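INFO  loader      accepted 1 record
INFO  loader      residues=66
INFO  predictor   begin
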Amino acid sequence: MKWSDNTTLTIVIIGAINWLLVGIFRFDLVAFLFGNLSWLSRIVYTIVGLCGLYLISMYGRIRSSS
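INFO  predictor   done
INFO  writer      dumping tokens
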């Protein structure tokens, strides 16, 4: 795996843990750390979303390697 794949996968996993906290405990870690929809928290949400979109390309790479 490339460095970018590992980095984006780590960011998406952190985002998934944040959604788990929201779903179970109604606790948004990003909003807690950076403010409720502040510009900084919006940047974090955008980065997590872009990493998720990038990881969609893994489906094609997995299919082509097998």
